[in-house]
Every structure is written in C-alpha cells, then in structure tokens.
C-alpha cells in the first residue's frame, strides 16, 4: 500500500494535520494524482543536488502533462483547469530554484510519515502535544489580529497628520495675509474679528497636535507591548519547534506568518517615524508657547528607533540549520573539509533591502576551526520561492587548524562528539538614516573528522535539543541533564519515522524502555541519564544502547526498508515475548526481530510442533549487512530451507505473525522467481550451470558435539545425498549456510 493510501485512511483529526502543509507551494491535487511516482523518487537527495533537482522538476512537469492528456480524454473540465493552473504555477515558481520544490516535497513526505507514526501510537507524545497546544494557536491568532489593528491605527494616524498639515497651511495663509496689510487696515473691526478666528484656529492646531502625538504614542505603546510579550513568545516557540524538527519531530511551520507580522510592524514603525518627521517640519514653520511637539517628539522618536533596533535584531534568524548534503537527516553534525549548507532569513521583508545586506559567516572564537569557502553573501528575494529576504550558504567547509591537530589524539571519542560549536552570522542594515548591526547563530553543532563518529555526534544533537531550549549553551555536556524517558522514546520513534519511513508503536517502545532500564518501567516520570543512553555499555555487551539502535536504523535503511515500511518487521521484541506470541500459533508461524547481541542483525524465529505435541522454537543465526548485500531479505524468506535428519529440505516459514501467508506479505518484494535446478543449457554461459544462492540450515541437537573433521562439515554425507537429489552441486556449493539452534 502506498504511503498516500495509508494517509487517506487516517482519522479526521490526522487528516486535518495533513491538510495544513499542502498549499500552492505543492498542491494536494498533484500529491494525489502522482502518488506512486512521487514516492518512488529520491526528493531528499535532490534537495541538496541542483542537477538532480532540475531533472526531477522536469520529470514532474512531464508527469503533470501526462495527467492533463488523460483528463482531457475524459473531458473533466474542472480537473483540466486546475492542472493547467498548477503546471503554470510549478514551472514559474521553481524554474530558477528546482531544489526548493525538492525540499518541499521531501518535507511533506516526511511529515506524512510522522503523522502515520503518530496515528499508530495509542496516545500523542508529550513533546508533540506541547507543540500543538491550543493556547499557542490562540496566541498566534491574537498576534496576527493585533498586528493588523496596529497597521490600521498607523494608517489612520497618517490621515490625522495630513489633516493637521492642511489646517496649518490654512492658518499660515490667513496669518500671512493679515501680516501683509497696512498698519491702518489692521485696526479695523474686520481684522480684529479675523485675529480672533486665527486664535481659535491656533487653539485647534494645538489640540490636533496633542491628539496626533497621543495617537502616535498609543501606536508605539501597542507595538512595544506586542513585541515584548506575544511576538517574542511566538518567535521563541518557532525556534523551539525548529529544534524539535531538527531531531525528527513535526515540521516547524509558521515562519511565513512571523515574517508577515515582523514586516507589518516594521512598516508601521517606519510610518510612525515619517509622521514624527512631518511633525518636525510643521514645527519649523510654526511654534508657540506650550507647543507639545518639541517636548514629546524627541522621546517618541527615540522609542521608535529603539523598537526598530530590537525588531530588526530579532528578525535575523537561521531558517535552515547547518547540514551536510550527504546526510540531510543528520543536521548540525559537520565533518571537517566537507561542505555544508545553511540558510538565513530576515523576517522584515522590505524591497529597499534587496541585495543591500551582506552576511558574513564565521565559526566560534576558540580558534580551533575556521570556515573555508564563500563566507560572505548578499541577502535577496530572488532565490526563495516565496520571495523571502534570505541567503543560503552552500559551499562552507569547516577546517581544523594545524595548531590544534596535535592535541586531537589525546581526546577520547566521547570528548570529540560532545564538544559543541556555533556558526555565527553578522551583517549591517542601513535604512532611512538608521544603521543596525545584526548577529545570530546556529544551534550548537558537533564537528567530526571521521564518518565513524557520526552516530555518537548525532546522539549529542538529539540529547541537546531534547533537553534544552537554550540555543547557545556550548558547555551543555560539562554536566548534561537527565531526560524524561517518555520524551526520549518519542524522539526515538521520530528517528524511525523520519529516517526509515515508519515510527515505533507502543509495544516496540516498551521493549526499548525495558532495554534501557533493565525492567518494566513507567514512561511518565522516569529520568534517564546521558551516560546510560550513549556512553555505558549494555549489560553483557560491548556496545551502548545508542550504537545498537543506530546500527538497526542503518540496517533498515540499506537492506529491509520496504519490509519495514509495510509494517511486517516486528523488530523490537525480546526472546521471552517472542515465545509468548508464537506458542499458540500454527506451526510455521514466524516473526522478524532485530538481534540483541549482534549489531545491525535481523533474525527470524518460527514455531514448530514435535511428534509428542510439544511446542518448539527455532531462531536462525542473525543476518547482518554483509550477508544481506549478497541476497535480499525477502528472497531469503522465500527460499530458506531447513534440513532435519534425512528429511527432504523444506521451507519451514509459512505464516508471518499473526497469520499472514508468507507470499502474501512478501511476494511483491521478491526480486525473482523461486530458484529452480538448472541444466547446463538453461542459459548458462559457455556450458556453465547458472549458480544461485539459497539459504540453508541444518538443525543440530544441543547435545551434538563435533568429534571428527567430517562432523565439522555443514551437513553429513547422508544428508548431502538427500539434498543432491533435489539441487545441483553448483547450487549446493554456492549456498549460504546458517547454523540454526534447536530450542
């Protein structure tokens, strides 16, 4: 079943979440019509490869054209109209930046997987629940409403200033007219009456000046209150959501809404600034005793400038955290001399700033690393599909200084992967007489010199962003805090949903909890230490919990991904639980689980019944990535044979737990037809018999001990004779044999 088909079967509350991230950037109509094709492309790789993204965009447009031809034959007028509009939109929006649509589609697919994983869990995780708090949504609506109200107030004040300007011009004209009269004329009764009218007009001017200053003061106060409270909280919430998204959590939307709020507030503040400048012009033409402008204007202007400084400083954000294109799902882990990308945005989108702001990238000041590559670029509105004012660095490389390289050998592997660094960015905005210096930094990054350090480095990134919302605590691992087990398990499920397309259910998470704690525990309040997660070896093992889990992720990604996505790999189940599940099932029922003793290993266990009615279980020696590289796992399950005594070799695997016929579960993943005995003329080159690999096991009694060289053979001569009747010698000699233990 395709991922999109699974999405369509979700409950309405989850479908509403899906609806939120499909818009004109990537219309849902295209997702629906091209579901199979979209899911078969590697959008994640294309998001960091411009050539690949260009080809995918061209192929996407071809696919849309084919759909247009189809619906044209069906004479579906509405769909024809929508597809023509969408094709024009896609081509216009992404022609100059094809990687952007690759990022969008990759994020949408990932978010679908996360929602599917969340739907399979009995309850929503604590982290995700906090991110979808209804109070937060209400605050977002309030912020947008208040910003709109402030913008309207500033525009209304513009009209008041214009009225004040017109009133003062009339006053100036009438006053100058009286001044131009002869002295004798000034004593006439008519002129005296005019002077009284001028005094009344001056009183009105004074009142209107005070009124305008009061309105300007209220607008400034409303902006100040909004920035100090709700807008600051919104920005902090977005940054926290970004942290969580970086470690596999829900996508962090809302930046465009924040940009709209920041931009409207900046426009309002500049509008107020112009109003104050206009009042200064009016002041130079007319002032009087008790004039409010010279008293109030300087204070108001100082407050406006102060708010503009703060607004600009808060608007300079890292939109996409540092990430190596080779490891898009492991952001903030950077390898020396390998390029990484990072994107920044100024949330104040003003046309006057396009190509006027140059951003410089540097690394933290410990002088151990420097950045190579293009580290100064101008922000512009042309590279982003949504027209935001942003800049993306694509060719930065961290380089370790030679002076510190000599000390690297004295550091342990944990010291390397627990050392946090920061990528800093600085720029200067010059606008309307203001000069504002801006600075921002990435979330802490971990530097590695060898890809073997990547798993532990990623563990550090997970632990940091799970445990703190402090964006710059570079000494965090001097005393890392414990994490709540329930939150950690939620994040671990995210690793599977984001990296291999399917999250973990409650039973799988229970097994991980028991493995971490060594016993059954309650998720809700248990605290787990950093050392237990990533530094201490599991009991009786030579590796840590995290290394074991990371090896499983790698195994799934490279060798059994389709089976995992289909939900046919139970995976995380203990041997004890395995037997409880299988004992009452039909003989030949089996399940797939990950090895607890071998890194990156997967095994299968089936239930059998002896002649006396007793139930017995068999577990094959785990398959690792080396063996799975030679033979696909689905083919292993199909062709697996077992030999007991002098019996004919047979496949004992009949039903995938609980009762799914094996071929029904795995048939679509078989790479070829079942192996058959070949004759020399059946296609073998130059008279050779085509060889195939088949997995074969011989069940040995526990009491069997080898005593002679012949006993060490994979099978006895008599057993070999039986096998020879059914398979060619070449097939037998090239078979992959697995020792299987009888229990």
TrEMBL record:
It comes from the Eukaryota. One of its GO terms (biological process) is negative regulation of developmental process. PROSITE patterns: SH2. Residues 564-666 form the SH2 domain. Its main location: cytoplasm. Keywords: Acetylation, Activator, ADP-ribosylation, Coiled coil, Cytoplasm, DNA-binding, Isopeptide bond, Methylation, Nucleus, Phosphoprotein, SH2 domain, Transcription, Transcription regulation, Ubl conjugation. The keyword Nuclease does not apply. One of its GO terms (molecular function) is DNA binding. GO terms for cellular component: cytoplasm; nucleoplasm. It is found in: Cytoplasm; Nucleus. This is Signal transducer and activator of transcription. The keyword Oxidoreductase does not apply. Gene3D superfamilies: EF-hand, SH2 domain, STAT transcription factor, all-alpha domain, STAT transcription factor, DNA-binding domain, STAT transcription factor, N-terminal domain. Belongs to the transcription factor STAT family.
């Amino acid at each position: 079943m395709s991922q999109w088909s699974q999405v369509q079967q979700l409950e309405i509350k989850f479908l509403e979440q899906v609806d939120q991230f499909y818009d004109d950037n990537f219309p849902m109509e295209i997702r629906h019509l091209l579901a199979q094709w979209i899911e078969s492309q590697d959008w994640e790789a294309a998001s960091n490869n411009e050539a690949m993204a260009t080809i995918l965009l061209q192929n996407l447009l071809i696919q849309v054209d084919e759909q247009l031809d189809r619906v044209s034959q069906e004479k579906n007028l509405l769909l024809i109209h929508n597809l023509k509009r969408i094709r024009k939109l896609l081509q216009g929006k992404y022609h100059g930046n094809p990687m952007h649509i690759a990022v969008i589609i990759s994020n949408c697919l990932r978010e679908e997987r996360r929602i599917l994983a969340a739907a399979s869990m009995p309850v929503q995780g604590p982290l995700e629940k906090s991110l979808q708090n209804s109070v937060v949504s209400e605050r977002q609506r309030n912020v947008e409403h208040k910003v709109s109200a402030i913008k309207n107030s500033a525009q209304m004040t513009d009209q008041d200033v214009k009225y004040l300007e017109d009133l003062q011009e009339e006053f100036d004209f009438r006053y100058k007219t009286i001044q131009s009269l002869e002295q004798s004329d000034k004593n006439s009764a008519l002129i005296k009456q005019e002077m009284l009218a001028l005094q009344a007009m001056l009183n009105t001017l004074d009142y209107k000046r005070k009124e305008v200053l009061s309105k300007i003061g209220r607008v400034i106060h409303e902006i100040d209150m909004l920035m100090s409270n709700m807008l600051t909280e919104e920005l902090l919430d977005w940054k926290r959501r970004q942290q969580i998204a970086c470690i596999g959590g829900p996508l962090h939307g809302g930046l465009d809404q924040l940009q709209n709020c920041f931009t409207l507030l900046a426009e309002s503040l500049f509008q107020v600034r112009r109003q104050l400048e206009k009042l200064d012009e009016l002041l130079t033409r007319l002032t009087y005793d008790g004039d409010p402008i010279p008293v109030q204007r300087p204070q108001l202007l100082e407050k406006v400038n102060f708010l503009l400084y703060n607004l600009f400083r808060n608007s300079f954000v890292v939109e996409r955290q540092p990430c190596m294109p080779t490891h898009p799902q492991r952001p903030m882990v950077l390898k020396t001399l390998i390029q990484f990308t990072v994107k920044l945005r100024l949330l104040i989108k003003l046309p006057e700033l396009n190509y006027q702001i140059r951003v410089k990238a540097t690394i933290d000041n410990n002088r151990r690393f420097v950045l190579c590559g293009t580290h100064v670029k101008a922000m512009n509105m042309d590279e982003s599909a949504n027209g935001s004012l942003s800049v993306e660095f694509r060719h930065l490389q961290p380089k370790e200084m030679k002076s510190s390289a000599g000390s690297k050998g004295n550091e342990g592997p944990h010291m390397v992967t627990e050392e946090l660094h920061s990528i800093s960015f600085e720029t200067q905005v010059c606008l309307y007489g203001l000069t504002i210096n801006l600075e921002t930094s990435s979330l802490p990054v971990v530097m590695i010199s060898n890809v073997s350090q990547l798993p532990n480095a990623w563990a550090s990134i997970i632990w940091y962003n799970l445990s703190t919302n402090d964006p710059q605590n570079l000494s965090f691992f001097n005393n890392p805090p414990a994490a709540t087990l329930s939150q950690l398990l939620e994040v671990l499920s995210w690793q599977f949903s984001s990296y291999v397309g399917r999250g973990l259910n409650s039973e799988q998470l229970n097994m991980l909890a028991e493995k971490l704690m060594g016993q059954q525990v309650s998720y809700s309040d248990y605290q787990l230490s950093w050392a237990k997660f990533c530094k201490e070896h599991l009991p009786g093992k030579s590796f840590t919990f995290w290394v074991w889990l990371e090896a499983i992720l790698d195994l799934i990604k490279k060798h059994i991904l389709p089976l995992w996505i289909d939900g046919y790999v139970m995976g995380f189940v203990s041997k004890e639980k395995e037997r409880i599940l299988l004992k009452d099932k039909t003989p030949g029922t089996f399940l797939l689980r990950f090895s607890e003793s071998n890194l990156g290993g997967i095994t299968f266990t089936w239930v059998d019944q002896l002649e006396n009615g007793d139930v017995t279980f068999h577990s094959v020696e785990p398959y690792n990535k080396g063996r799975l590289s030679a033979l696909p796992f689905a083919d292993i399950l199909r062709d697996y044979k077992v030999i007991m005594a002098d019996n004919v070799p047979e496949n004992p695997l009949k039903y995938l737990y609980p009762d799914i016929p094996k071929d029904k579960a795995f048939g679509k993943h078989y790479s070829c037809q079942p192996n058959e005995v070949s004759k020399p003329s059946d296609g073998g080159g130059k008279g050779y018999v085509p060889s195939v690999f088949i997995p074969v096991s011989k069940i040995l009694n526990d009491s069997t001990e080898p005593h002679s060289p012949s006993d060490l053979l994979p099978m006895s001569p008599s057993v070999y004779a039986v096998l020879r009747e059914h398979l060619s010698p070449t097939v037998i000699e090239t078979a992959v044999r697995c020792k299987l233990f009888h229990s």
